[in-house]
Amino acid sequence: MFRLESFAVFESQSNKWIVEALSRQGSVISLPKITLEKTEAFFKAINVNAFDWILLPDTIVTELFIEKLQNDNFDLFELDSVQICAFGEAVATLLSKYQIHSDIISTIYDHERILQSIADYTNHQLRDLRFLVLKEQNSHEAIVGILQKKEAKVTEVSLCEIKIQDRKNLVRLKALIKGGGVDAFVFASPNEVKALKTLFQESLESLLANIQIFAVDDLTFQTLRENDLRPRHFEVLLLK
Predict the structure, then answer these.
(1) Are strands 153-164 and 34-38 parallel, antiparallel or unpaired?
(2) Per-residue model confidence (pLDDT) at position 34
(3) What is the 8-class DSSP label of residue 58?
(4) Which DSSP helix (H) or strand (E) runs through 213?
(5) N-to-C CA span, the chain
(6) In this structure, are residues 195 and 34 in contact, taking their beta carbons and an 8 Å threshold?
(7) What is the mean pLDDT of residues 3-19?
(8) Which domains does the chain have, with CATH numbers?
(9) Any idea which of 4-8, 107-111, 219-223 has the lowest mean pLDDT?
(10) Structure pTM?
(11) In the chain, N or C terminus with fewer CB closer than 10 Å?
């Protein structure tokens, strides 16, 4: 394997140690800091009991959804009356920390397969089932259209908008990533995986096709695998 000399990582206070470690091995390209801006919908009431299913596509909206319910003094144990579909192990793990059960855990981001899992769970009775799909603003969830074709009733709620401090550099960063200017990308959290997908509006498999991928922890590793990537553990990189 050729020597890795240039590394991309998201800028944040918690990632400083990663930048310091990588700086000893080569050049570091910092992606602008991620910020989450809550939407008006975050502050409006959601009648959770009006739905049969809640779909949680990533850890960002899952964290915000739990925060919202707690702010609204909603008893999390009442979620037992609603079926929950977690898109990925990271989402399911986060839910379990709050003793919230996931009825379906999808280990791959294939919306047709997610639909099949839901259909099997409901004995293929999707018509008129009420789905709440939580998402980020400007994030497209293909499962919505697929469910609507099955005559399910779907409500989308955007809880936040993913923003970066220096958007003008996105084009330059994308050119570097796709043009061979980055040898490796280091992800420190599942949130960073979702943020990159949303910011560039492109599948990570395509965007990072020629780049080696490293994950700082096990949940991030699993999230990257669920996005059809082949990550390695960050510790391997540090040993080089």
Answers:
(1) antiparallel
(2) 83
(3) S
(4) strand 212-215
(5) 11
(6) yes
(7) 90
(8) 6-33+165-238 (3.40.50.10090), 37-162 (3.40.50.10090)
(9) 107-111
(10) 0.84
(11) N
